[in-house]
User: Fold this.
Amino acid sequence: MRHPYLIRLDDPEDWLAVREDLQAGTGDLIEEAHDILRPEGPDLMYEFNDSYFYKSTAYHEHSTGWETFFIHEGQLDLCIRGKTATVSPGDVIFIPPYTVHKMTSLSNPLIWNGLFHGLGLLSVMDNKDMIQKTNPDLLLNPEMRSNYLANSDNIPRENPCFEERVPKEEIREIRAFDKPLAVYALPGVSLRQYTGRWENDGKTELWLAEMKQGFKVSFNQFNPNADLFYVVEGQVKFWVAGEEFEAGRRCLVKIPRYAPRSFEALTDAKMYDAGGSTHWSDFLGDMTSLKKMSPEKYADKQYTKGVFRRHQCYVESAAYKGQAIY
Ligand SMILES: [Fe+2]
Assistant:
């Protein structure tokens, strides 16, 4: 049975479904994807899958939906607007609507995760499951695949007449670990920004917390945020609504609104805030400005309480090895 909050990507018990995408005509395996989280709410948030990718996608774009890919193991070539670069573990790919793209696995397989909002990929996949039940041969018909994709907001594009190989820094949709949008270093933790709210239709933003052993955070009991944390390195202990558990590499922690929560890095650890409810960019920007420009306001807890609330930050306390950070 699934744990109420902990999801282990490598445990088949935690998969909602396994989907195989086969090459029409040959039946070769293009991708084996494990559905991990279904989209939620009117903005179709938190949809997440884990995928083993062997081949190549077509050159295509979508009219809706924001796609974020975490490269876990192996490498892939990403072609965007005719420019191609190789993407490696630790890098993130961010694809907004109307961004033409093609991915080619350079590994056998490439292991990566997709985090989506506004896309509703699973409802498309549900349709495919239905066809599998009602007309399975049709899925292997060479004409079916292109017809199906065209009816699933997968807008086919002609292969580019030029394909230029460039350093990955030249493709803005590749967010390399060593080229974050912003970095804030605090005692026991540094926060790296991969995507911004301004480019996610205002719905989310993506940050990686690099935590030192002994970094601990507790959240306010009035916290209306749902959280989705993704541990990619190290070991993190969580306390959520009376449950105590550890999350390690390739674990997600999904926490509902208003559930009391805190966590502590048991080892040095890397963890994404993949839910992106807190407006970290605005919050960390404002707090840093206050500390430098108006230290008296920064020291005034009543004033900073307003800054916390304004940016949906419900951190109650943060400490490193028992020393309060703020
Ligand atoms: Fe796509």
Q: What stands out?
A: The domain at 182-324 is CATH 2.60.120.10 (Jelly Rolls). Residues 121-134 form the longest helix (14 residues). The chain has five helices and 26 strands.
